[in-house]
Amino acid sequence: MKYERAVVRTCKCHYDQQAEKYRANSGFTESMKSRTFRSAEIDEDNRKAFEEAADFIRNIDDHRKEGTWIYIYGDSAKASAQSKSAYGTGKTYLMQCIANALAHRNIPSIYVTEETLFGEIKSTYQRNSDENEQDVLRRYYTIPILMIDDLFTANYTDWSEGKLFSILDSRYNEDKITIMTSNFATGRIETKLPENGGKIGSRIVGKSILIEMLGKDRRRRKR
Fold first, then answer.
1. Which of 13, 17, 117, 185 has the most CB atoms within 10 Å of its CB?
2. Of 176, 204, 171, whose CA–CA distance to 70 is shortest?
3. Burial class (CB in 10 A: 0-12, 13-18, 19+), 165
4. 4 pLDDT band (50/70/90 cuts)?
5. Where are the alpha helices (DSSP H) in the chain?
6. Which residues, other chains included, contact 206 with Cβ-Cβ below 8 Å and sequence gap of 6+?
7. Residue 38 · residue 174 · CB < 8 Å
8. For residues 141 and 129, what is the distance between their CA atoms, to the nearest angstrom?
9. Is the pTM of this model over 0.70?
């Protein structure tokens, strides 16, 4: 008996629409959009960090297949012991350079602060919300690249710990790229998140290129 088999393939326009909707630098100011690897002020404190991030972008196709993470951090406790700063060292600047590079390549990505991430989930609890909680979580679960700035700065509750673990665990299991900045070394995350910090730290170590940024506070020097 003759039969035909239909194969459904996602058209290129779908990916173009997704890339336009989820452009990593869509919420950036003009100043933030101007931050690139070429225009960055490079010195001995940040040279290695920028080289590692630039190499990540050059090999982005391989990293998308593998689901590589990046954890950009400057541990405040370690910095204090070494008379250095963990603040103002360029962690956010570096991640914005990465975001602009991803936008230039039309790779669907979301860039949020931790505060915005939790705020979007909480907004679904309002009666007039256009989305429900699962809609927002699904977006964070499935976006090819999720960038979270200032991780582990919130006053955590069981609810916030659970939501963050749910997002990171899903992305870990599905090999989705996640890029984060933080002022906590992976071994100290548990001190901030007693319920899920150990599990989150383990997943970060297992997936991430760890980029440490300590040095001078560039904000003070600039001012």
1. 117
2. 204
3. middle
4. low
5. 12-21, 30-33, 47-58, 60-66, 76-81, 91-104, 114-123, 133-142, 158-173, 189-192, 197-207, 218-222
6. 172
7. no
8. 20
9. yes
